[in-house]
Amino acid sequence: MKRYIPLALILGISLSASAQDKKIEKKIDSVLKLMTLDEKIGQLNQYTGDRDATGPITNNPNKLKDIRDGKLGSMLNVRGAKETREVQEVAMQSRMKIPLIFGLDVIHGYRVTFPIPLAEAASWDMAEIENGARVAARETAASGVHWTFAPMVDIARDPRWGRVMEGAGEDTYLGSKIAFARVKGFQGKGLGNLDAVMACAKHFAAYGAAIAGRDYNAVDMSEHTLWETYLPPFKAAVDAGAATFMNSFNTLNGIPATGNSYLQRDILKGQWKYQGFVVSDWGSIGEMIAHGYAKDKEQAAELAIKAGSDMDMESRSYLPSLAKLVADKKVPVALIDDAVRRILRKKFELGLFDDPYRFSNVARQEKEINSAENRKASLTMAEKSIVLLKNEKEVLPLSKNFKKIAVIGPLGKSEKDMQGFWSIAWDKDNLVSLYQGLKNKVGNQTELLYAKGCELSDSSKTGFAEAVEVAKQADVVVMAVGEAFDMSGEAKSRANIHIPGVQEDLIKAVQATGKPVVVLVMAGRPLIFNWTADNVPAIMYTWWLGSEAGNAMANVLYGDYNPSGKLPMTFPRDEGQIPLYYNYLSTGRPAKNDKDTRYRSAYLDMPNSPKFAFGYGLSYTTFDYSGLTLSKTQIKPDEKITVSFTLKNTGKYAGEEVVQLYLQDKFASVVRPVKELKDFQKVMLKAGESKTITFNIDKEKLSFYNQQLKWAAEAGDFKLMIGTASNNIKLEKDFTLLN
Ligand code: BGC
Questions:
Q1: Cis omega before residue 203 (within 30°)?
Q2: What's the mean pLDDT in 415-421?
Q3: Cα-based angle 165, 167, 173 (whole degrees, multiple of 5)
Q4: Is residue 50 among the annotated active site residues?
Q5: How far apart are CA 253 and CA 580, in angstroms?
Q6: Å from CA of 666 to ligand 1 middle
Q7: What is the 3-state secondary structure (H, E, C) of 23-92?
Q8: What's the mean per-residue pLDDT of the chain?
Q9: How are beta strands 387-391 and 538-541 bridged, if at all?
C-alpha cells in the first residue's frame, strides 16, 4: 500500500482555495519565502512542556533555546494564560517570530470535567455533545491553548481496549454523527474566534481495531471494513472542518499508520482534499524503528514526511534528519514546504500572526473557566449519559420517604475516579462524589450511611461484615462499584473485564440482607457482571461522569431526571465472545436463537447474544410503538420513502426515548450486516402523550461499498426495523429498491 501521489498534486491541493483563503495563501507565501530550510523544519517539530517535577517549560533551558532558535512549531502540555504567554514571548525572540501553537489533550472538558466521551455517546444527544465540546473549547481557548487533541473518532468493538472510554463506541453511524458534533463544538464559529480551538480527529486510522484489544497492537483489516466501518467518522470530521488530524501508533495491514501513504496522502489529502495538517502521535515516527519498518530515525523521518505526516510530536526525528534528507535528495523540499504551509495556514487562521498572545489573557481565563454555567452544562451532560440497565419492582426512582440510605462500595465517596483517565488535574478541584451528591440532594431529611466494603481490586473481604451491618440499618442500599480512573484509558487494556476484585461478592453479601439494592457501575468500558445483572433489581451504568458526577447520579436516582441513555457499545457475557457487536455480517449458518448450536455459527458453552445490547437503555416510563407506514414499498434510485409510526409514552413519567432505525440489505454483491443503524431521533414525551415520528430513506441510506469498493446502492429487497434497542425491534417492514 506504499503509494505516492505526484508532488504537483500535493501542491495543487494546497493551492486550491476560496477568495478569503487566497489572502492567507499569499501571506503564507511571503513568510515561506523568508524562511531557511532549518526554520521550515523547525515548524514541523513539536515538544511537550515539562509540567512535572521540573516545573513548567519556562525552567527548561534546552527547550527554550530551541524555541529561540526557531526549531519548534508547536508545544503540547503548556497551558494557562500566563504560562502560554511566557513561552510565546520566547518564540517572539526567534528570527522569524513565528508564533507557536499550544496543544493539549482536552478530551472531555478542560477545567470542568465532562463525562468521558463513551458516556457522552450514551446520551445520543448531538446538541448536548456539541455543547460539551463548546464549553471545553471556551475554557481551553481562554487559557491560552489553541488546539485540542480530540475528538478520538476510532470505532471500538473490543472492550478490552482501554481507549474505548475516549471514543463514541462501536457504531459507525452514531460515531460519525458524534465526530461531526464534537468538531463543530470545539471549533465553534470557526478558527480565529477567541472561543474556538482547533480540533484533531484521531487516530488515523483503525487504531481501535488493535488485535485482541491490546493497545498499540497491529491491525489487520479488509479494505471493506476499513472503508465501511472505520473511516466514515474521520470523513465526518473532515466534513465538519476539523483543522487537524493525528495519525496512529498501529500498523495497518503491515504498514505503520505514521508511514502510511495510502492513508495520509491517497485518502486524506488526496480523495478527501484535506487542507489541515497531520500531527504524528507521540513518538510514533520514531516507533517505526521498533515496528521494524525503518532502520533508524533518519529513515523514519523520510518515510513519515513522504507518507504525509506533517508534524513530529516528540519523536525528535524530523529536526535532526530532514535537512540531511533534503541535501541527499531523498526528500524534495517541496514536501517540507507543503507541510509547513499547512501548519502556517492554521497559525494565520487562528490569528496568531496578528497577535501571538491573543489567547493568553488572564482576565478572560478568570471569567471563562469553572463558571457555574459550565458546571451546569457538565451536570446536564452527565444526567443524559447515565444508562438505566434494570429496574425491577420499581425500586427506582427512590422514594422520598426513605429515611435511611446506605451508600456502599469502594467508589461511594470517590472523587478522582469520577474524572476518568483523560482529565486534567487541578489543585483544590471541586469534584462531587456519589455520597456528596446524595447529601446535596436529601439534605437533613434522610440519613446517609456509608461503608466502603472493599477496595477496588481487593481480594480481601474483611470490610464485608461492616457493609452488611450498615445495609441492614437502611431502607435502601445504593452501591458504587466499578473501575478506578486508571483502569481504562491509554495503555490500559485488560484481558479480564469483569468488575474487578471482590466487588461482585460484596454485592452478593449486601443483596443477601434482603434490602432493596441499586447498583451503580462506574467504569470506562463495558464491564461484565452477570450475577449482578441477573439478581439485583436495579442497575445503572454511570461510566465516569466528571465534575458533577454525584449530583447527576442523585438527580437520576430520585427521578429529577428520567434516564434516557442508550448503550453505544455491546456488553458481552464473557470475554470469550469478544469482539461482539450488533452489526455483524450474516453467516451461512446463522443460529436461530441462543440454544441453536448444531452445526450453527454458535458457541457450545455460551449464547451468542450479549448481556446488554447496543442501543439498549431503560427509562422510568415506558414507550409503545405502533402503526408503521411506508409512503412507498418500491422506490426508484432517485425517490425516497417516508417512514412514519406512532410513539406513545405509556408510563407515569415524562421521558425521552431514543428511537432507532435499522436497515438490512437482504441480498447484495457484498454480504451485508444483519442490521445497521441508519438513523435515530431522541424524542421527549409527556406521560400519556403520543407523537408521529417520521424518517426518510433515500439512496444514500441504502448505499455501501460494493465489490469494487465504490459507494453505491444496489437494487433489491431491504428490511426496515424500528426499535428501542438493536435487539428489541418493535416494528418492521420490507421494501424494494428498483433499478
Ligand atoms: C496519545 C494521543 C495523545 C498524545 C498526546 C498519545 O500517547 O495516543 O491520543 O493525544 O499522546 O498526549
A1: yes
A2: 95
A3: 140
A4: no
A5: 22
A6: 41
A7: HHHHHHHHHHHHCCHHHHHHHCEEEECCCECCECHHHCHHHHHHHHCCCCCEEECCCCHHHHHHHHHHHC
A8: 96
A9: antiparallel
> What does the pLDDT read at residue 625?
98
Query: What cell was used for 602?
Result: 454458535
CB 142 within 8 A of CB 193: no
Contact assessment for residue 60 and residue 54, using Cβ atoms and an 8 Å cutoff:
yes
Residue nearest ligand 1's atom 12 by CA: 105
What's the fold here for domain 375-576?
Rossmann fold (3.40.50)
Per the listing, cell 456528596 goes with: 436
Strand partners, 695: 643
Amino acid symbol at 111 = R
pLDDT tens for each residue of 585-634: 999 999 999 999 999 999 999 999 999 999 999 999 999 999 999 999 99
Q: Domain segments of the chain: what residues?
A: 7-365, 375-576, 623-737
The answer to whether 725 touches 613, Cβ cutoff 8 Å, is: yes
Pick the catalytic residue from 154, 266, 281, 417: 281
The residue contributing the CA closest to ligand 1 atom 10 is 149
Ligand 1 contacts (CB < 6 A) are 76, 105, 149, 202, 281-282, 490
Please tell me whether the overall predicted TM-score, pTM, comes out greater than 0.90 for this model: yes
* Residue nearest to ligand 1 atom 2, measured at CA: 281
User: What is the C-alpha to C-alpha distance for residues 504 and 515, in angstroms, rounded to an integer?
Assistant: 16
Among the ranges given (17-26, 131-140, 376-385, 681-690), the one the predictor scored with the smallest mean pLDDT:
17-26
Q: Which CATH number fits domain 7-365: 3.40.50.300, 3.30.390.30, 3.20.20.300, 3.40.720.10?
A: 3.20.20.300
Residue 220 has φ and ψ, to the nearest 5°, of -130, 115
The CATH number of 623-737 is 2.60.40.10
Closest C-alpha among 612, 391, 610, 618 to residue 519: 391
Q: Nine-digit cell at 475?
A: 431502607
